[in-house]
Structure prediction request, 304 residues.
Amino acid sequence: MKRALVAALILGLCTPMLHAAPVCEMTRAVVLPLRDDGGYLSVPVTVNGQNASMIVDTGSEGSLMTPGGVAALHLPPDPEHRTMMQGPNGSPRLVPNIRIQDLRLGTHHLGKLPLGAGTMAVGVLPGSPMITPPVFGLLGADVLADYDLEFDVPHQRLILWHVHLGSHVCQQPPAWIGHWTTIPVHRISGRLTVPFTLDGLSGTALLDSGARSHIVSTDFAHRLGLTDDELALDPGGMTSGVDLRERQYHWHHFKRFELGGTAWTRPVLTVAPVHDQADMLLGSDWFAHHEIWLSYATKQLFFR
Prediction:
């Protein structure tokens, strides 16, 4: 009888725990001022105690420091590491790395988020705004994917959130009031992609705050039936990526673009070669017109 009583008491104590709801906790890691200079989204950082700015690039797997930044910040080479860099033209090349003793997001005037020491690839940015403190590189998914990112470009702020999941089934929504759109995302090497439909054809879009516009791949445009001769009639020009190789682009009028139940009619989108795992890049102009929450923790995109 005593054994049965003990077993019943233990079972009674354990039962409520089996039905405990998963817990999601969010805490702000840091609130950063976010600049938009002609489509270049940047935040202030301190590198070894010195102020700088870096582009926020959700479309890049890794972070990058420019040769000008290496010289200005007196950063030593890292002989133990090199990085294989691939630009939009799909041509990989091996680049050197530098060592950073102390990287922090923010400046001494604001709250800082310490990231510690590390190594970073050295590469040239094809363009950047002339601002103070100067832009010396970009922050990629190797830094950003450890947080949930809340982009509020109109109010010039980027919030990094720590999300502590109590369960793998926990799907934490953003701390917003009102209506928003939710889309599941697919994560590849720290980068996030979402499905879209353009003129009735489905594709995959990369969430790329480092790109300055919506860029539809030339291959996808061909699948829509557009020929090179037809695209040549559209206005355009030449551009380049981190590989500094020029590529031609055109601005084309499409009929209908759909993303997560939201539709845009008669959009003018950039058509250019995209040698990536995506048919389209959702660039900084899309980020600038929406309040966006990228949840790396729960693999969701929220926007409104």
The two ends are 62 Å apart (CA to CA). DSSP finds six helices and 24 strands in the chain. The longest strand covers residues 92-105.
